[in-house]
Amino acid sequence: MANESRPCPCDIGDKFDYGGRGQEVQVGHIKAYICKPSASTDKAVIVIHDIFGWQLPNTRYIADMLTTNGYIAICPDFFVGQEAWKPSNDWATFNDWVKTREAGKIDKEVDVVLKYLKDQCGAKRIGVIGFCWGGAAVQHLMLKNPHVKTGVSLYGVISRFEDKQSLLHPTFFIFGEKDNIVPLDQVTLLEQKLKQNCKVDYEVKIYPGQTHGFVHRKREDINPQDKPYIEEGRKDMINWLNKYI
Question: What are 37-62's pLDDT values in tens digits?
Fold first, then answer.
């Protein structure tokens, strides 16, 4: 995905010991984790997981964070029952593994989730966020899906979407300065093409000194030097959603 010797060298990072405040539900043909705020709302956010799957506690922590900010948050299993990547897996097998889990082929699942949010949760304004693999999926949706109002792509692999930068909706791109999966030259190219082609609001932000996965995989309590950037990334994400949903 990014370099040939180790195509997506994602480190699971600091795995949270976190159980979640929501519940698992069946949404059509897929399972999902959902959390709702105490007050009723018509605002919802679809959370698209990384290669470590929909049950990663870190991702559920972010979903619950969205709920504390007033959103219905849902994290579906976009691998549709297939196994998530495990840290113990052989990286030499990654390309074959990801071929059956393409970030640009989630439209059927997204349609099912959108219907569920509208029919079962009363959602009318829906955005999307995604991490790594899910960040690439967010880019796909921002290019194609007319029903999602806005998106935040967090360190999403961008090489597959280089020639398709006509975004339909406002999109916020978060990258780490020291991300070895999405190098800065790719980010620069993305910015150039967005400037040339994009007719909606967008922002590309690079966080100093940060590596891949910093917003949801680093624990700010054991990475004190990164804490300001982790908090800033999360705050920026919430502010973008608040602005456009």
Answer: 999 999 999 999 999 999 999 999 99
Nearest residue to 45 via CA among 129, 116, 103: 129
- Distance (Å, rounded) from C-alpha 222 to C-alpha 94? 29
The pLDDT tens digits for 76-128 are 999 999 999 999 999 999 999 999 999 999 999 999 999 999 999 999 999 99
Given a contact cutoff of 8 angstroms between Cβ atoms, the answer to whether 8 and 2 are in contact is yes
- Whole-Å CA distances, 59 to 34, 48, 65, 144, 145: 12, 9, 10, 24, 23
Would you state the torsion angle of the CA atoms of residues 227, 228, 233, 235, taken in this order, to the nearest 10 degrees? 110
Give pTM, 2 decimals. 0.92
How far apart are the C-alpha atoms of 148 and 141, rounded to whole Å?
8
Neighbours of 94 (CB within 10 A): 18
Catalytic machinery residues: 132, 179, 212
The pair of three-digit structure tokens given for residue 149, joined into one six-digit string: 């109002």
Cα distances (Å, whole numbers) of residue 211 to 61, 87, 109, 175: 19, 17, 30, 8
Strand order in the sheet with 171-176: 23-27, 30-35, 72-76, 43-48, 125-131, 151-154, 171-176, 202-207
Structure tokens at 38: 């105490």
